[in-house]
Design brief:
This protein has 209 residues and is mostly helical. It contains 11 helices and no strands.
Length: 209
């Protein structure tokens, strides 16, 4: 009787953790596109407000791509050193702080914040598919579709809602871009169990099974 009860509790706990991981994957996916695509539709407003050239403001959209190219080869080493869950957590922190920094001051902070976001997205782009394969080995196709759709949906939202948000009185382009810091914070909160006791429980359950 006691053994059956423990087994039931263990199965129920694992099921809850798996749902938590699924929700975390969706939120991480949202942060891998939205903060990047949101700036594209605001380039004209940003250029006029900061009085910079078309060339300079145009490079804002290429900066994350440069970060992808430079950082991506080193992501496996980062994951090996700190663990995959911790590396994704660090990526979310970079995206959140980047979203805050690029919305605070002028041209310099705009580019620094964008670079931080690019680094965070580069880490997430490499590790999220591997994390999905590790936790859902029998549902790789479905889970890949879920996080792929999440990225596309939030990428479209980032491009589509930025201008309406910026048009709100007292909000502006800085307010529109800072919204993604809130999205990142929410993702961090949901992801935290993966780097603490919740993640250890899941690994233990997987090992014993």
């Amino acid at each position: 009787m006691l053994t059956n009860k423990k087994t039931f509790i263990k199965q129920n706990r694992t099921k809850q953790i798996n749902w938590l991981i699924l929700f975390g994957i969706i939120l991480v996916s949202a942060n891998l596109r939205g903060p990047f695509t949101s700036v594209g539709s605001l380039l004209t407003l940003i250029r006029e407000d900061l009085a910079v050239s078309h060339t300079l403001i145009g490079s804002l959209t290429t900066l994350p791509l440069i970060a992808f190219a430079l950082l991506s080869p080193f992501v496996p080493k980062i994951s090996e050193r700190f663990g995959m869950a911790w590396a994704v957590f660090f990526a979310l922190l970079l995206i959140m702080f980047g979203a805050i920094v690029r919305s605070l001051f002028g041209v310099t902070s705009l580019f620094i914040g964008t670079a931080l976001i690019g680094c965070g997205i580069a880490i997430g782009n490499v590790l999220l598919p591997a994390f999905v394969k590790m936790n859902y080995p029998l549902q790789i196709g479905i889970m890949t579709g879920i996080y792929g759709i999440s990225m596309n949906v939030f990428g479209a939202l980032g491009a589509g809602v930025s201008v309406p948000l910026a048009s709100i009185q007292g909000f502006g382009w800085k307010g529109a871009l800072s919204v993604w810091a809130i999205v990142s914070l929410f993702a961090i909160i949901v992801w935290m169990p993966q780097v603490s006791s919740g993640r250890k429980v899941l690994e233990s359950d997987t090992t014993t099974s």
